[in-house]
Amino acid sequence: MGKELNNEGFVKKMFKKYYAEWEGEPPKDFNRREFAFVISRKGEMIRHKAFEEWGEVREFLRKNSPLHVYYSSAYYAQPSASDMDAKEWMGADLIFDIDVDHIYTPCKERHDRWTCLDCNTSGRGMPPEACPKCSSKRVEVKTWFCEGCLEVAKEETTKLVEDFLIQDFNFSPREISIVFSGRRGFHVHVESDVVKELDQRARREIVDYVRGTGLVVQNGKRRVLAPPLNAGGWPGRLAKGVYELLNAGDIEGLLNLRRGSKVEEVLKAIVKGLEESRDYWPLEGLARKIWFKAVEKVIVRKRCEVDERVTTDIKRLIRMPGTLHGGTGLIAAKVHLKDLESFDPYVHAVAFVKGEIKVKVLNMPEITFLNQTWGPYNDEVVELPIGLAVYLICSENAIVVGEGDENA
Amino acid sequence: MIFSKLDAATYPFISLASRLVKELEESLGLNAILSPDSEVLRRSVERIREAVYSRATSVYKRDLEVEVLSHPVALILIKHMNNKRLVNVYAEAEKNRVLANLLKESQEKLATLAIDGFNWHVKREGDFLFVRFDDYLKTSVNMLDAYWKLVNRRLVKGYVELSRRDFSRLLAEAYRTRILEKVNQVEDVQVPSTLKSVIEELEREFQGVLPKVDVSATYVGEYVPSAFPACILKLLEEAEQGKNLSHMARFTLATFLLSIGKTPEELLDLFRKMPDFDESKTLYHLRHIAGEIGSRKKYTPPSCATLRTFGLCVANDELCQKVKHPLTYYSKKLKSLKRGELGKRAK
């Protein structure tokens, strides 16, 4: 056939294919939620949609094959009202967003680049808030999601779900869904009557808890009270964390302590104290100093990097699980907690698995896609699996050069 | 556990208290309860006076039915006096009274009171009481000290572990919050004209003791940086140095200064040094949050809690511990500065 197609047309065609067969899984009380869509790259977001039947949602997606599909974390009496007050808020899911964009990962130095649109200064790694040379805020970023980033996102998600949501807050695993964000992280949805009606202030307390914000380490003038290992919440988490830390190797190096018999002795005493104490117990002098240094490290290790704005917003629009992300063409796929460790977005979130297509790749680091390694490519025409091509085109790293055999 | 009439008089938040009020209102009639020579009215007025003059109410044990009725009647009177400080003073006094009583109760009684009065989910184990975290949060968000932040509590399987003392404090605070809600809710019952004179008399009496303050009026138009909280001073300094402030930092600074009477045009110069300054854009944003254009909503600065979450809080003078909002800090500090000056002059 060889019909010329532009990028957007190609993406649209692929999305249409995806939604033609799409069944989806209705979120809890979907008819009380607002839906929102982005249909085309230049188009505005269509908001305040509501659906009574799940079939209508499927029909809408089939017809419009949107680039982005969102629904509200909130439940409303009038979800289609265009005035936010007229919607009549009835409650909301508790949402967490873990996004590698906001978390430092060392691998970003290798694969992320930023460019100032005003003076063309560029660099690698996390983008600065403003260009260091001309202070412009118009900084463009090119980011990739590598295995290193994925690992960090998984680790944070596991911590959030297992240590905080299940262990401390006692949510049942049935109330928690983990969803790949479609790009560089995970969304965690908690649908529970316990939190449904909590206001912003209460949700801020929850997010502060998870992030360890405002944590006060009990400290007197001369002594500090160390919690016992079996304490609940953060006190126990700190005690356990210090215990693990002191039992690992090279403590002196990690805590920047001078090696010596005195330090050895104190470290042993803290470990022994933790093993034996059933209640808060005092630490003085050098032990108190070491405790503080250790606790600082433990907080960073045990806290969970979630985006506080998402959790405290009780009227947030969030990507609908099972739909495609217009910036990657990947599925915002639900992931079971037990499958999280082995989850690979370039396998399990790929929507288009059959066929190849020729595209001109502008820039791409080495990527393992559907268990096969591709690239790196720089400004060259190559034949790629269609899913990877869609990914590159959606993220503006490639352009269509001709029609492949995906229709064959 | 069965509650007694004394419990209903001591703890107006339990269901027995509201049941008794309803029954008595039906059998006696509202007019009789509110008549000028009624014992209930006399006791209600006394109750308010106790709150104003000794900051704690008492329990009048001679006639428990009068006592039970006097609380809702006091709330009606207070509602009609329309003095925000009086509401706070009364709620605080009631809280203090209830707390003193709670501290003497058994663990079992405490649990029962919380379950009956506020539908809390409560568990008991050893020396501790456990409150489900959502019940805990609904009240603890009103408590300022970092001690009450969830992150500093022991949270076990969805329940917050509390000593008897802390449980009592939380419960008393829940009661205080409920009084504030109730006063805002009490519908405008038509009060008998005889009651009006009682209300007017009390208003006159409290004029000197509890002057009505219009918080916004105390600082509008007064630009006294030495009374700014540390967080605002820091932002101001950074803005003047031309540092690139985050969105939240700019919003905080702008809303704070607009709230104390600066105009959007006056603030333009402050943001001029920002690296990405664009006069028309900045003015547009400033006018928007000042409520001059757009949704016409006048934005107020974020609360201390929000500033903490965004890492903008640099707290730590004593006054910071007592307030929840940078504007409250400003108004209080301004007042104490003025008092100090007057003091000096008097000498």
Protein architecture, described:
The complex is a heterodimer of chains A (408) and B (347). With 408 residues, chain A is of the alpha+beta class. Chain A folds into four domains: 6-107 and 146-212 and 304-351, DNA primase, PRIM domain; 108-142; 223-302, no CATH class; 352-408, Ribosomal Protein L9, domain 1 (3-Layer(aba) Sandwich), CATH 3.40.5. In chain A, 34% of the residues lie in helices and 22% in strands. Chain A has helices at residues 7-20, 54-64, 108-111, 147-168, 193-196, 200-211, 233-247, 251-255, 261-276, 285-302, 308-312, 345-348, 386-394, and strands at residues 35-38, 45-49, 68-72, 74-76, 89-92, 94-99, 113-116, 122-124, 139-142, 176-180, 185-190, 223-226, 281-284, 317-319, 334-335, 356-364, 367-369, 372-374, 377-385, 398-400. Chain A has a four-stranded antiparallel β-sheet, with no helix packed on it. In chain A, strands 6-11-10-15 form a four-stranded antiparallel β-sheet. In chain A, strand 10 (176-180) and strand 11 (185-190) form a beta hairpin. The N and C termini of chain A lie close together (11 Å). Residues 404-408 of chain A have low confidence and may be disordered. Chain B has 347 residues and is mainly alpha-helical. Chain B folds into two domains: 5-209, Transcription Elongation Factor S-II, Chain A; 225-346, no CATH class. Chain B has 18 helices and four strands. Chain B has helices spanning 5-10, 15-28, 30-33, 39-54, 64-81, 84-102, 107-118, 133-140, 164-185, 193-209, 215-219, 230-240, 247-259, 264-271, 279-289, 304-309, 318-322, 326-346, and strands at residues 122-125, 128-132, 155-156, 159-162. In chain B, strands 1-2-4-3 form a four-stranded antiparallel β-sheet. The N and C termini of chain B lie far apart (61 Å). The chains are: A alpha+beta (408), B mainly alpha (347). Chains A and B meet through helix 6 and helix 7 of A and helix 8, strand 3 and helix 16 of B.
